[in-house]
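re the bet — no i am not wrong, look at it urself. input seq straight from the record:
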Amino acid sequence: MHRRTFIGLLLLLVARTSLGAVKTLRVGLTPAFLHDQYALLAVWRDYLQQRLKRPVEFVQRDRYRETMDLLQQHKLDFAWICDYPYVAMGNEVKLLAVPVNQGKSIYRSYLIVPAKDTHTRSIEDLKGAVFAYADPLSNTGHLVPRFDIKQAGYDPGTFFRRTFFTWSHRKAIEAVASGLAQGAAVDSYVWESLAKVNPGLAAKTRVVKQSEAFGFPPFVANSSVSQADFDAMRAALLDMSKNPAGQALLAKLNLDGFIAGSPDLYKSVAHMAAAIGKP
């Protein structure tokens, strides 16, 4: 074999071996985000891989608890989680980045009912109704409505005639739209995003009340992630709004971009969690 050809093959082998040895960054997602949008996840994965020069894998789970378990078992490097799990996990995770939606890093809980229900004005009007919760560890889909019920002087455990979990905000919206539930509390970001991509479905529900503003569900890093990986992933997210490819992806995510954020954004969630107790 020609010496130059041999050296070229050797360098190619070394490059492939090195690439294979690079640790894949695993990013967890709860069902609150990108439900069933696999094509969009593939585009986002490719975008991050190009900027991080690392393999990236998105890991979706059907329940918030499962994503939290993977973080606690150090099987995820990063995750986009709800603010309630972020508060509950404490020092096990570090705040990485906070999404910006409609110019602000906040979202709300929307109390919704079927569109044909023109009488309900508050959660108290739903006493004795069938109510859909998103997930036991959802702030907007479980913690907020139970906190509101308790603040009104009722027992959240007996207030409704029947409750059930849908395990995603979209499915909670679908439950109300179809009449399976007489009410639900859902993530405003999910409802607003759904109103854009499936306006017919959202139109079958009516927003009765908007809660106070909460810090937008954050991206977090496992506490064991190296500072170099932390800084690289944060930079990749924060820079998305600064280039055409990132801007196009953000538009599909219905986001303006990401900021570093502050744990102070989530103080009110911690206050409610302390008042209502564990789910």
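see?? Residues 3-21 form the longest helix (19 residues). told u. also The chain has a mean pLDDT of 90. so pay up
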